[in-house]
Every structure is written in structure tokens, then in C-alpha cells.
Amino acid sequence: MQRAAVFAFGLTLALYSGTALAVSTLQDADRAANAVVSYLNGLNVICPFAVRDASPLSRCVELTPGVQGSRLRLSAAVNLYGAWSAGESPGSLSNWILTPGGFLSLTLAPTHPANSLVVISVPVARPSAAGAVAASLATLKPATSPVPVAAPPPASRPESASPGSSAPVFRRTLRLGSPRMNGEDVRTLQNRLIDMSKKARGTGGDGWYGPVTEATVMDFQNANGLRPTGTVDQRTWTALFSGSARRFGAKLAEAMVRGRR
Predict the structure, then answer these.
(1) β-bridge mates for residue 102, sequence order
(2) Which of 83, 85, 127, 142 is most deeply packed, by most CB within 10 A?
């Protein structure tokens, strides 16, 4: 029930083709902070001066245990926008959440041997908002050395089908949900979408069906005469891996990525 309540509070975004991403407000930050306090047993605290100076539209919550424990608790309870990344201050982590009002910057920093500080901020100016908060946290001196963030091991990446080849076996319907769907079929989907959108594959997909993957699926569906649902059913899967699949511009997905920066 607590988990459902966190999601019901609205850390999701309904995506529609061509819809501009909204700008979050201090009220969105208040709601997010109150949700963390209510459902993760946090404590509302006054943000340090350095944080308020860097990003006035911020709310701070103290959580137990430290950064790594808080990261796991937030990941389990909140529908985050993307993957955690190392912040600009030692031991800090950053991410994004989406509310009905738009983006909110999320920063975790060590402040005490057993505690961490959660900073939820309205991005005043992208891309500097999250960086400014993280940099300001560097002025805080944790009582103990922060636990280093271990880099995940590199995952193997299967090759996606080339145009005209037979489609990989469709195993299940893929969609954005909670918890996030993941697996090799998601990675295969992501790699094929990257190839069809004329982007350099690089390291390929991460195997997690997140908001950017959903938006890219919608871009493909729009370009190929399919209903833009963001869900990969048998029809979308077959069309994507068919020789007649049309290349497309990932406009909605690119808009989301630009908004994250």
C-alpha cells in the first residue's frame, strides 16, 4: 500500500507525440519531498545554505541509512526517470524524477555516518541545475568517508537484426511499468530502435524498458503507421524487425534526453 501510494502521488509522465515537456514547480518539489518523508520514514530538514544558494527552489530530506542504502530505498519506492550517476561532489549520486508538472532534480549526498541528504530541486536552468546542487554539496563535510560507487560490470550486447533479416522471436509484450521490465529482449529492441533511428549504437541498449525507450517506440510507431502507444506488442515487434520498417527520427525521445541535461 505504501509503494502504491508513492506511485499514486504522481512520479510518472504521460507521453504524447509532439507534446512539450512541462516545467516543474516548487509545489512539485514539496509533494515529492513529502512523499519521501511519509513513505520512507524520512525527516524534512532545512537545506544547507550552499544548496539554497545554488538552487533556491529545493527541498531537503534526511534519510537513514547512508547514500547507498538510500539509493536502494528510493529506487524501490519511486519511479525514477533514469539511471543513477555519480555526482560532482565526492560520494554524491544524482538522478531525475518526473511529476505531472515536469522534471525534478534528485541528488543524494553523505552528511553523517548513518544518514544521507536527499535534495529535490526544480531545475532552474538546464543543464546546470543538478550540477550546481551537486557542486554546492561539495562544501559539506561528511563525518566519514563516503562509500565509493561501484561501476556495474559491462553487459554483453546481442546484435540486432539488420533490415531484411528474420525477426527475433517475440516472447512477451514490452511496456513501461513498475517495476521496470528488463532482459535481453529489451536490449534487442533497443539496439534495433537505435539502428532504425540512424544513431550510432555505441555500447547499445541497457536492457531496461524506461521512459526514453517508450518514447523511441512511439516515434517508430508514428513513422510506421502504428498507433503510438509506447507498448511493443506482436504487431510492433514484427514491424520493427521487418525489411519494410521505415527509418525514423527519434524526436520525442531526443526531447526527453535534452530535458534531462
Answers:
(1) 99
(2) 142
Residue-wise pLDDT tens digits, 171-211: 999 999 989 999 999 999 999 999 898 777 777 889 999 98
Closest CA to 135 of 74, 150, 26, 127: 127
Q: Which residues contact 49 (CB under 8 A, 6 or more apart)?
A: none
55-83 burial, b for 16+ CB within 10 Å, e for fewer? Answer: bebbbbbbbeebbbebbebbeebbbbbbe
Q: What does the DSSP 8-state code read for residue 80?
A: B
Q: Which DSSP state fits 23?
A: P
Give the Å distances, CA to CA, from 221 to 65, 197, 227, 247, 257.
44, 12, 6, 11, 19
The secondary structure of the chain in percent helix, strand, coil, rounded to multiples of 5, reads: 35, 15, 50
Tell me if the pTM is above 0.85.
no
